[in-house]
Design brief:
single chain; alpha+beta; 2 domains; seven-stranded antiparallel beta sheet; 10 helices; 7 strands; about 45% helix; globular
Length: about 280
C-alpha cells in the first residue's frame, strides 16, 4: 500500500508552459528580463513557447499558478501580443491569459476535471485571442461543462486543440501534465530551441532596444501615443513591484520590473529619435 512518502508532491508533479503569440526573437528579448532560466522555441505560425525551469514552485517558494500569472502579466504588459500560461500540479490544472494592461483572466479545473472557473473567462479568451466566436466558442464552452471522462489534463489538451485553429502547434513532448524536468528535457531535444537567461543589464537593455526599433514591443515607438504608453508603464511599474514584494511573489516582482524597464527604454528611445 503506498504511503504519503511514495506519492509525488504537488510541486514535484507541477509543470508549466508560456504560449506567446509572437515570433521567438521578440519573446526572447522580453523573457530574459524575468531573470528565470527558460527554454524558448517556436510553436507554429507566429507562436512561441517558453518552458520554465520551475525553480519557484519546485523550491516551495510559491504555487505554480501564482508564479505563472505574474510571469504572463510581465511578458504581456509591454508587448502587443498576448500570453497564455498553462500550469498544472497534482491537484489542479489551469490557464491564465494576459494581454497588455488589461486584467488577467484565468480558468482552472480540479484533478478530476471538475470546472471551477467562470464561463465568462472563456468568452474573454476567445475575444482576446481572435478566435472564431461561434465554432471555437462552442468548443471552449464544452470545457466548462461537467464531463466524467475528462480529467484536468484532458481539459488543457482540449484548449490546445482549439488554439491549433489559430496557428498554434505545440512541439512534440511538451504535453500538459508533464513535470517541469521532463518538459525541459523534451525542449532541449527540439531543433531551434534556445536558452533564455539573464545576460546582465547592458545586454538586456541592448536586446530590448533592438526589439523596440523593429516595432515588436508595441504598436507605437514614437510620438504622443508612445509617451503616453511609457508614462503609464512607469506609473504602474512601481506599485506592481511593491505589491510583489509584499506578497513575496517573484512573478509580480518580475512584472513590475518589466514595466519599469519597458517604460524607461521606451522613453529613452523616444527622446533619442526626437533628435533624428
Amino acid at each position: 500500500m503506498p504511503t504519503l512518502r511514495d506519492e509525488p508532491s504537488a510541486s514535484a508533479a507541477a509543470g508549466a508552459l508560456l504560449l506567446c503569440r509572437a515570433q521567438p526573437e521578440a519573446v526572447g528579448a522580453a523573457a530574459q528580463l524575468l531573470r528565470e532560466g527558460m527554454l524558448l522555441t517556436g510553436a507554429g505560425d507566429d507562436w512561441s513557447v517558453l518552458v520554465p525551469e520551475g525553480r519557484p514552485w519546485l523550491n516551495g517558494e510559491e504555487p505554480v499558478d501564482r508564479v505563472l500569472t505574474g510571469w504572463a502579466a510581465a511578458l504581456a504588459v509591454g508587448a502587443p501580443w498576448p500570453v497564455l500560461a498553462l500550469w498544472w500540479d497534482a491537484d489542479r490544472s489551469g490557464c491564465t491569459l494576459a494581454s497588455g494592461f488589461r486584467r488577467t483572466v484565468g480558468y482552472e479545473w480540479l484533478a478530476n476535471g471538475t470546472p471551477v472557473g467562470e464561463d465568462e473567462a472563456m468568452r474573454t479568451f476567445a475575444a482576446r485571442l481572435g478566435l472564431d466566436p461561434v465554432l471555437d466558442m462552442q468548443d471552449l464552452e464544452q470545457l466548462t461543462q461537467p464531463d466524467s471522462a475528462a480529467d484536468a489534463r484532458a481539459r488543457l489538451r482540449g484548449l490546445l486543440a482549439v488554439l491549433t485553429r489559430a496557428g498554434m502547434a505545440l512541439p512534440a513532448g511538451l504535453a500538459p501534465g508533464t513535470p517541469a524536468d521532463r518538459l525541459l528535457q523534451a525542449a532541449r531535444e527540439l531543433p531551434g530551441t534556445r536558452p533564455v537567461s539573464w545576460s546582465g543589464r547592458r545586454e538586456a537593455a541592448r536586446a530590448q532596444l533592438d526589439v523596440v526599433q523593429n516595432g515588436s514591443l508595441g504598436p507605437w515607438t514614437r510620438g504622443p501615443r508612445a509617451r503616453a504608453l511609457t508614462t503609464a508603464q512607469l506609473a504602474t511599474g512601481l506599485p506592481v513591484t511593491l505589491y510583489g514584494v509584499r506578497r513575496r511573489s517573484m512573478g509580480w516582482i518580475a512584472a513590475g520590473a518589466l514595466l519599469l524597464t519597458h517604460g524607461a527604454l521606451g522613453f529613452a528611445y523616444d527622446r533619442v529619435r526626437a533628435f533624428d
